What does this fold into?
Amino acid sequence: MAAFDPWDPAFVDDPYPAYAELRERGRVTYYEPTDQWLVPRHADVSALLRDRRLGRTYQHRFTHEDFGRTAPPPEHEPFHTLNDHGMLDLEPPDHTRIRRLVSKAFTPRTVEQLKPYVSQLAAELVDALVAKGGGDLLTDVAEPLPVAVIAEMLGIPESDRAPLRPWSADICGMYELSPSEDTAAKAVRASNEFSSYLRELIAARRKNPGDDLISGMIAAHDEDDDRLTEQELISTAVLLLNAGHEATVNSTVNGWWALFRNPDQLATLRADHSLIPSAVEELMRYDTPLQLFERWVLDEIEIDGTTIPRGAEIAMLFGAANHDPAVFTDPERLDLTRADNPHISFSAGIHYCIGAPLARIELAASMGALLERAPTLSLAAEPERKPNFVIRGLEGLSVEVR
It folds into this structure.
């Protein structure tokens, strides 16, 4: 297992050869450093995402002790309170109830109505980049677009948006493998500050509702008049913000970095902008923004003759699954015309990304604006990878417009 090392910068820079080795090894491999079972093949990852014998949490059925796990340190409690009340880390019946209520406010029509705003904002950001002859695609376009869009949806005033991205980055640090105590301390601080801010905003929206998503979630109820609790509202808002821009930011910069390394594909896209929808899907497959997704084994399962006991943790390798030659023809090749593209970058099953339609709109809007308004966009300097493995991205992407 020398090739698979999520703390090795060389592996983080290019994990795909190690994934190929894992797929050749078999359908499941135990990885001792993280005490996880690695699953690298597309068919297995897709099936396990839908398997109810696995769960994002186990606390709806077991105590930490019953499950053979140690409770998180008390000093981490603010992070876990925030994280554990969000849809992503809940299982039915709580997950079902919260997702149903959130869906009443986060409707396809609501998302579709954002298209003009997203397109206009993308154009403005790209125009500013062009006016100064280039810059950092990450900070100038990739970050501000989805952060502004989800903040606009939630009803967060423009004057309050500066801390959103730093809060999100600090919280998301806890999703990496074996996060350090320094990472945990930052996540706890961000969880406290973000929660306090949202608690005040929710109180204001209760008194004076608006057309925003937070007001909609406050008002959402079902036939039993069941509503979201305040903690569920806070956790959902944070989840929507974090998930609503982390994947989009990283997909944007990972995607353009891939295009610059594949000039034939970039030329094809520049010649035919109708390829934007398939290009968005292919770039998300080619360099997946979320490389690994974890599940707890709630009831013993068997994979290819290997018994995985209750209490174990499975790490589904999205990046490996999205490069599985059993599903994708010539998977290491970037092909923006790829028609059959069942990538799993948005997950699957009950935890399928609720914001996938919005992410696609944002990615298409920024790509379209860059193709139309910056047709000579080129790479100005070789980028550096972030040291993170689970959430895959770049430190920045320096570009120029001649």
In short: The mean pLDDT is 94.
